[in-house]
Design brief:
This protein is mainly alpha-helical. It folds into three domains: 6-47, no CATH class; 67-126, 434 Repressor (Amino-terminal Domain) (Orthogonal Bundle); 160-214, no CATH class. 52% of the residues lie in helices and 7% in strands. The chain is built from 13 helices and six strands. It has helices at 6-16, 21-34, 38-47, 71-84, 88-95, 99-107, 113-120, 124-127, 151-154, 161-171, 176-183, 187-194, 207-214, and strands at 67-69, 110-112, 131-133, 139-141, 158-159, 204-205. α4 (71-84) runs parallel beside α7 (113-120) and α10 runs parallel beside α13. The structure holds zinc ion (ZN). The site of zinc ion has 7 residues, from α9.
């Protein structure tokens, strides 16, 4: 390609900013005449400010959140709550919203369209809590807070199993009265701990209670 010095370049780029379209085209043709190939021509035209100006990129449209009136969502929430006795927390869980957001729908006139849509999509079935199995084996309806442990385990209680086995061994050799006398527990407590009847029996006990039960010596047991 024909070498153009930087001084020449400076001399031409300035004035060329203000030439007419016709002059621009003529200048471009001249440049192309000296260029060795297309790439060279493109480079020259760019250097001289003769290249077609690139269209400015179109800025993305600002994503304005769309708002919707809360009426239908509010009526849906009230219907779920009153007709089906579903708590707001469960509705929020099913809708993937925060409790606060659901409360806001009941109080305010408009919400994000997506929030309203999420509420309207919630069905009674969505709110049915799945059954969760605690690490202790107890099962319970999943709570809205997502807690995976049963109330007893949350309270620090332990499953009654080991204490129950111990009470069975004690009762095979002693009367309730004798166990009461040696343990200090009431007969009712001893019965409940030792009973396999699920309706009567305790399922969990305090760890201190378990320790006291397990410390009771079984008469005649070989140690
Ligand atoms: Zn548990």
């Amino acid at each position: 390609m024909t070498t153009i010095g930087s001084a020449d370049l400076d001399a031409v780029t300035g004035p060329m900013k203000h030439i007419t379209a016709e002059e621009r085209e003529r200048a471009a043709l001249t440049v192309c005449h000296y260029a060795t190939d297309t790439a060279d021509a493109a480079e020259l035209l760019a250097m001289l400010g003769l290249a077609e100006p690139k269209p400015a990129p179109i800025p993305p449209a600002p994503t304005t959140p769309r708002f919707a009136r809360n009426g239908p969502a509010r009526r849906h929430i009230i219907s779920l709550r009153d007709a089906h006795d579903i708590s707001l927390a469960r509705i929020a869980l099913a809708a993937g919203l925060r409790n606060h957001t659901v409360g806001e729908i009941l109080r305010s006139e408009t919400s994000l369209q997506s929030t309203v849509d999420a509420i309207l999509a919630v069905t009674v079935e969505d709110c049915a809590p799945p059954i969760v199995e605690c690490e202790c084996g107890a099962t319970f309806a999943r709570r809205a807070n997502g807690n995976q442990r049963c109330t007893h385990c949350l309270l620090g209680q332990v499953p009654v199993g080991p204490a129950r086995e111990h009470v069975k061994l004690l009762r095979a050799r002693l009367t309730l009265k004798q166990i009461r006398a040696m343990s200090g527990f009431s007969e009712d407590t001893i019965r409940r701990i030792g009973s396999p009847d699920v309706h009567l029996a305790r399922t969990h006990i305090a760890p201190e209670t378990e320790a006291r039960i397990l410390a009771l010596e079984i008469p005649g047991a070989t140690t």
